[in-house]
Amino acid sequence: MAKLIRHEGIVEDEWSVLRFPAKEEPLRKQAGKPVLFKLTGEASATPDEIANLAVPEGKTIIPLPLWLARSDELAARLAAATLGVWIDSHESPEALAGSLDDLNRFAVIAVNFPRFIDGRGYSIAALLRTRYGYRGELRAIGEVLLDQLFYLKRCGFDAYALRTDQNIDDAARRLRDFSHPYQAAADQPLPLFRRQARGLTA
Questions:
Q1: In which element (H, E) is residue 30 found?
Q2: Residue 91 CA to its chain's centroid (Å)
Q3: What is the phi/psi pair of residue 15, to 5°?
Q4: What is the DSSP letter of 133?
Q5: For the whole prediction, is pTM greater than 0.85?
Q6: Looking at residue 172, what is its pLDDT?
Q7: Which of 97, 113, 122, 168 has its Cα between 20 and 30 A from that of 128?
């Protein structure tokens, strides 16, 4: 079973992440350089791929397009708390929020980082926590590196599936890279000067 980092430590990951079959995408270039991430709004899968993707038994985190297209079929799994959903970096958290009366019915929402240099997942996480009030497990998946953990936490993530070449035993320390961040963020709504004035930094 894979390992997962939570703020309380390293735990066994009870959830599997369901993905569409990988596609061979042509390499796009702009000014002679490869374009590394997808365009906003680019389709994740075809209707046939969405219709034919089988959802396994057990705790499963499914792609957002699959949930949007087949939510009626999957409602029982959601009610049984054996269904989560993941959002790709080019997808919209608004679409997920609009598909359900309460996002907190999902036990897990994951955000995919297809490349570690693609920062859109940070904004998705912050929106889920602050604008849409999601309080469940918010998980970072994909190319998640140790260097990112502290900043992911600041945006509201509380679970992390590291890229396989990362040293998971170093994760707890990296979540505490800075003792008292100055700015307000999803994990701490008060900036440092407000916390000091209220005696909350001891």
A1: strand 29-30
A2: 11
A3: -105, 145
A4: -
A5: no
A6: 77
A7: 168
| Amino acid present at 13 | D
Rounded-to-integer distance, Cα 63 and Cα 18, Å: 7
C-alpha distance from residue 70 to each of 63, 65, 78 (Å): 11, 8, 12
Determine how β-strand 60-63 pairs with β-strand 33-34: unpaired
Structure tokens at 184: 């307000």
Contact 141, 86 (CB under 8 A): yes
| DSSP string across 141-201 | EES--GGGHHHHHHTT--EE---TTS-GGGHHHHTTS-SS-SS-BTTB-S-HHHHHHTT--
Can you say how many angstroms the Cα of residue 185 is from the centroid of all Cα atoms in its chain?
A: 17
Q: Alpha-carbon distance 45 to 22, whole Å?
A: 10
Task: Tell me the DSSP string of 38-57.
Answer: PPTT--SS-HHHHHHPPPPS
Tally Cβ neighbours within 10 Å of residue 43: 11
CATH 3.20.20 matches 3-20+34-197: yes
pLDDT values of the chain reduced to their tens digit, one per residue, 202 residues: 789 999 888 999 999 999 998 876 555 555 665 555 454 445 568 999 999 999 999 999 999 999 999 999 999 999 999 999 999 999 999 999 999 999 999 999 999 999 989 999 999 999 999 999 999 999 999 999 998 998 899 899 999 999 999 998 888 776 665 555 545 455 555 444 454 556 656 4
